[in-house]
Amino acid sequence: MTTLTTPPIAPHPSLTSTELAEFVQGARRRVELALGRFVPEPSDDPSADLPAQLSEAMRYSLLSGGKRLRPVLALMAAEACGGSLEDALPAACALEMIHTYSLVHDDLPAMDDDDLRRGRPTCHKAFDEATAVLAGDGLLTLAFEIVAKHTRPEVAARCVVALAEAAGPSGMVGGQMSDLQAEGRTDATVEALESIHRRKTGALLRAALRVGGLTAGASGDILQALDTYGHAVGLAFQIVDDLLDVEGDEAKLGKRARKDSDLGKWTYPGLLGIEGSKARARQLADEAVSALEPLGDRGARLRALAVDLLERDR
Amino acid sequence: MTTLTTPPIAPHPSLTSTELAEFVQGARRRVELALGRFVPEPSDDPSADLPAQLSEAMRYSLLSGGKRLRPVLALMAAEACGGSLEDALPAACALEMIHTYSLVHDDLPAMDDDDLRRGRPTCHKAFDEATAVLAGDGLLTLAFEIVAKHTRPEVAARCVVALAEAAGPSGMVGGQMSDLQAEGRTDATVEALESIHRRKTGALLRAALRVGGLTAGASGDILQALDTYGHAVGLAFQIVDDLLDVEGDEAKLGKRARKDSDLGKWTYPGLLGIEGSKARARQLADEAVSALEPLGDRGARLRALAVDLLERDR
To answer: A54 and B169: CB-CB below 8 Å?
Structure first.
């Protein structure tokens, strides 16, 4: 094993939730601005290469005020590794585009058949199915263009690999396939459920930490620490999602509550009960916090975020 | 303008169509083998990360004996620029994955609603719509993973940009959107039709030449020559496609003939007539051949291919 490159662990200064919120809001603002720049506005010129309706559909789905968790995690990881937010921004935006494309496709009638997303009609409802398929395809493709074009080449290739592995057939796309196949099946186990979530949502969250670290030039040990953190936070995030689906407020969620349980989807509360699920989420948050020890003080924001994610109501 | 880096133009040795066919068949064999390796076979283990049905659907669509025109062009361009076929192979496979994903999504009921592709039921007919959407998403994502993972990093990033620009919202995806929007509209012009084809099929064909050149370390001038060639060959290819749709043999095509004209799609024969279309295709093939002058003798195979594409019957 190689030696850690970080200084010995110092007592972690506490970070108030206001300080965390300020960083998160600043990061979100940067991401919103960059996303708006990366997807051009519809052109009045009917002979423009980018069709106006496609641009509208992509921007409709992308610029609709999501939590921006993945780009925020990437920026936070870059900052924790001593990198610049500017260098991490293209990869951060690519993550949000990949996340958004997956929502647009998952919402399609042939998939989860959802009418509401982030508080508004889903893409295929606001436009039509063909446009939604193409808007998703366009966002996924643009994500790779942006990270490859605006990141240093040797880092860009590694970021593309990290994003594609996380989003691809053995990652997010595979998780969605397994999730669809599991619907209504009665042989659910915690292991099978975690396998789905590890791929469907966890993989891209881990990739967010990884690309943040990569753009900051982090060492293998630090990338490993970020990965362990990402894995634990990703599962905890999903458990809280499942809990919100059972207990949450539809107006705050911006989507239909109790939809997963109605559809016969496997959920943590269904398998572990509500208290059991909360305990598992707390345990994972502890694991996430411990994993960050190699980062020392610089991991304070990521630590605070892990705790904060458990408290969210949407 | 920078100086050309190639030797002065020598008289081009003629290439027999048998010699061309031998190269093409050898290139196809390499591509088939590599594609089969890059998309893992379905696993018996139900807890495998790659769901068996997703792997089956991806392989069903990808390994179904297409012409492999895009990878063959990439390998031919690499060879014409003095590069190795091995170095170009990952990008070549990525091209075929991107092409196949676009066919899978374009065939969906909400898009072109096709039942037959490469002589077999389309992906959503052989499996189901959700699986077809995900298989397409998986192939597109895997394409970027493969080129980024198996190409030298500084070249990989440029290949990813070339592929993503060609396949993205201002390229292939935008061309498909414009094509859908044009259906049944009566204000067709040759310019509008060429704008659609330049994006829908032309952009990826040009990218094939470009990534071939990039992996071979070609200079800017040579990349420009390949691009002009790719542009002309791409349009000529589409004109021949339209002519085959009108005049072709369904058994050889492996898809329904006269489908485009039945759907009210804009076609070259519809706008220029059959003879006019043939003349335009010949003119473009001449342009393609002339563009290759900077490559000298090394461009012989690409020259022969441009002529050969006009003679095809499927």
So the answer is: yes
